[in-house]
Design brief:
The structure is a homodimer of 460-residue chains. The first copy, chain A, is an alpha+beta fold. Chain A has 4 domains: 87 residues, Uridine Diphospho-n-acetylenolpyruvylglucosamine Reductase, domain 2, CATH 3.30.43.10; 117 residues, Uridine Diphospho-n-acetylenolpyruvylglucosamine Reductase, domain 3 (2-Layer Sandwich), CATH 3.30.465; 107 residues, Alpha-Beta Plaits; 93 residues, Alpha-Beta Plaits (2-Layer Sandwich), CATH 3.30.70. Helix content of chain A is 36%, strand content 20%. Chain A contains 16 helices and 18 strands. In chain A, the strands form 4 sheets. In chain A, strands 15-12-14-13-17-18-16 form a 7-stranded antiparallel beta sheet, sandwiched between helices. In chain A, strands 5-6-10-8-9 form a 5-stranded antiparallel beta sheet. In chain A, a hairpin with a 4-residue loop joins strand 17 and strand 18. The two termini of chain A are 25 Å apart. Chains A and B meet through strand 9, helix 7, strand 11, helix 8 and helix 10 of A and strand 9, helix 7, strand 11, helix 8 and helix 10 of B. Chains A, B: Its cofactor is FAD.
């Protein structure tokens, strides 16, 4: 059904908070990835769960698609509206509802970003740890099962959410759990919704776990002769039980890009970015142990950043890598892909990826959340050159195929969206994808929630 | 359809591994809880995934119920067969398929018990941490989303399983994930199956996370003036970021029972059982910090157990509490209930529970995984006395009602089974329970998988 039939109702519900302005529509159909954008037909800026429920009821009755929108920082076309419909923008539904300091949790609206939440928490001595790089919204991070640099220590969104409030496709409001730290009461609707990318429900409140801000934090970088040496160092550190806070790997070309972009002069070698945290005694012990382990693998040239400004500079270099990579070739865009393998296969997977880059005319950089076996590539290409677009596609598919062959996943943290639906069956098999399609059909029988994402087809 | 119609096929598939012996049937319909037992019509002892798939296909086609059986240690009637049918006994499907030391994971068959798995792992320096007390099977622990004394440090089954192989109701075999440490590839079928109590699928392989055996482990007990003091000590320790390995609370009557049963002479006061682990430096620091925190809350009389035998004795006293409690009143049985609340509400919830016991003719003991806000009660009753049975029911319902009123759950770790289906809607509301029923109907349309558990009715 064309959206025009529900526009009057949307207008009367939202007034000025509903728009069909072309510029606004366009900006809501484009994420930070390299897939083509697709604008919705209307955008509503919601303030309450009840409003979300009313939009769902309208769309459920008429078959109009709904796409949820947070910060727009996803990478696999999650927020594109290929079938048009209503975009629900959650950015004005961004309050902290409640902080429970003794329980170390907070209830927030989905549109709050992680940095705003952490700023709000500063005086409590607590923080929310999941850090995907981008200043994404908490709701969006739930929807994509986000993780990032701190996941090796604190886990991903699936580990840091206690409960959700979710509006189903038909407008009913579901509480997935309460604030108890654990529960064995029925199916885990919380985890089912986390990572469902807006295809099973619309997240309207999130109860997140918080953690104590550590007493001491120290960071360091250390170059290694080869990627394998860096990875072996990480494996040994983890097996030794050292609770590292962050363990990031940048390959030699990434270090070159960082140096050029940020006017630094780090060694152009595979390099670990490490962070240690805890009590001062515990950090001192961790530092000593990791230095000894690194030395066994040829990593001896540690550069330390103990002061908070030095750490900020070090991590800024890491977090700016996307822009540093783009600057290697002015005017280019980058395909940011994302795979994750068992850590014992990580060096091999990176090695095969480097070989694929060497055999290609395109340039690729590798950076990884190495403690989790997760890495990204930035493959630089000219978006106006059809041959390069084809080559970058081929390389992306090749990297995924290598990861799957090494018992890995086609996405460690970016999600399936539209960009990776083609890999899901190769990864998990037809029965698993069909089980997902059955669940999708059960909870969203008219297929209005973010159509075309994860499960683009009906169950068999 | 009566099972008699598929018995010949089961016989030809399983030969001597299929039985209708009355004693075997009876023992497969009874768990360790206090609910009435209900025997299946036949038991098959499976060896392979393919056999499980064949049983499912037979039952799916004929509407015969299937109940999965592991160690039989569940407490809420999970393994009862109120509609008869086939019990699939997994205890002979109990191999370690593969241990990946570098990746710190293992792939196991579902019938292996946690103690057998840990004995197998001993030489690797790794262990599987989830400890529900009973020597349950890994498959059963997945099915009930088990947790226990070490969950405050290592999480529950949902946090310690990377992937499952599951046979669906129609016999199709699903791989829920691969061995990558994290994935954002589609719906989290792993977590959906964990805690589904055999109602959505039959678990035929489990990839578990392993952890390094800590260098140093030290345990202690410390009595406190009041339950509130012990809980406040725990809250402060957690907020301080001390990574405690175990934090258990026993109330004064539990300590009396422990003393009598194990010939000990601990103080008859609310007591914390604590365990510290890590490097020797880290443990020494944790011990010092926790002693200082405990002293602020009136806990000064620490008794330490550093040697492995002393620790074993200390934890045996805790783990034997069920029998110690029963011994307080020879011939009685115990209702073991299980609730979990936000930790800031824990002292209040325990206080209300103690008040309920004081107002009752029955005796109740309280013990808790206090770091998680989870506690159990043992309420002693005479199973042959109808009035006592009624009173124990009333008390159990009252404790759940208190927990729900304090933003908690009707079960932290024992699950819903048949015993707690009546509380699920009160806890999560009708839309949530209906969403569960929709998922159940989608994946098991003929309702053959463990009927009567979690979701006893069809969706609205």
């Amino acid at each position: 059904m064309p959206i025009s039939q529900i526009l009057p109702q949307l207008k009367s519900l939202f007034g000025d908070r509903m728009t069909t302005n072309a510029g606004v529509l366009e900006s809501h159909g484009r994420d930070e990835g390299s897939l083509p954008s697709a604008a919705p037909d209307a955008v509503v800026f919601v303030h309450t769960t009840d409003e979300v429920s009313q939009v769902a009821k309208l769309c459920h009755g008429t078959g109009v698609p709904i796409v949820a929108f947070g910060a727009g920082t996803s990478l696999e076309g999650h927020i594109a509206a290929p079938q048009g419909g209503v975009c629900i923008d959650f950015t004005q539904m961004n309050k902290v509802i409640c902080v429970h300091e003794a329980d170390m949790d907070a209830v927030v609206q989905p549109g709050i970003t992680r940095k705003t939440l952490n700023a709000h928490l500063r005086d409590t001595g607590l923080f929310f740890p999941v850090d995907p790089g981008a200043d994404a919204t908490i709701g969006g991070m739930c929807a994509t099962r986000a993780s990032g640099t701190s996941t090796v220590r604190y886990g991903s969104m699936k580990d840091n959410v206690l409960a959700l409030e979710v509006v189903l496709a038909d407008g009913r409001i579901v509480k997935t759990a309460n604030r108890a730290r654990k529960s064995a009461a029925g199916y885990d609707l919380t985890r089912l919704m986390i990572g469902s990318e807006g295809t099973l429900g619309l997240i309207t409140a999130v109860t997140v776990k918080l953690h104590p801000i550590p007493e001491t934090v120290t960071a360091a970088i250390c170059p290694f002769p080869r990627v394998e040496d860096a990875v072996d160092c990480v494996i040994t550190a983890i097996q030794t039980g050292i609770p590292m806070a962050r363990m990031e790997l940048l390959d030699a070309l990434s270090m070159k890009a960082v140096n050029q972009y940020s006017q630094l002069n780090y060694a152009q070698a595979p390099t670990l970015f490490l962070e240690f945290e805890g009590s001062s005694v515990a950090v001192a012990e961790q530092v000593e142990m990791v230095q000894a382990i690194a030395a066994e693998h040829g990593g001896t040239d540690f550069q330390w950043a103990t002061q908070s400004e030095d750490r900020a500079r070090l991590w800024a270099a890491r977090h700016n890598l996307y822009y540093a990579g783009l600057a290697l070739r002015p005017g280019c865009r980058a395909l940011t892909t994302d795979v994750c393998v068992p850590i014992s296969n990580l060096a091999e997977c990176i090695h095969r990826t480097h070989q694929a880059f060497e055999a290609s005319a395109l340039t690729g950089l590798i950076l990884g959340h190495v403690g989790d076996g997760n890495f990204h590539t930035l493959i630089l290409f000219d978006p106006d050159d059809a041959q390069e677009r084809q080559e970058v596609e081929r390389l992306g598919a090749d990297i995924v195929a290598q990861a799957l062959a090494l018992d890995g996943t086609c996405t460690g943290e970016h999600g399936i969206g539209m960009g990776k639906t083609k890999y899901l069956t190769a990864e998990l098999g037809e029965p698993a994808v069909d089980a997902m399609a059955l669940i999708k059909a059960a909870l969203d029988p008219t297929h209005i929630l973010n159509p075309g994402k994860i499960i683009p087809t009906a169950p068999k």
